Amino acid sequence: MINEKYKHSSITSKIIGCAIEVHKILGNGFQEVIYQRALEVEFSRNKVFFSREHEMPIFYKNECIGTRRVDFLVEDKVSVELKAIIKLENVHFAQAINYLEAYNLEVGLLINFGSESLEFKRLINSKYKSS
Question: Which domains does the chain have, with CATH numbers?
Answer without folding.
Answer: 9-124 (3.90.320.10)
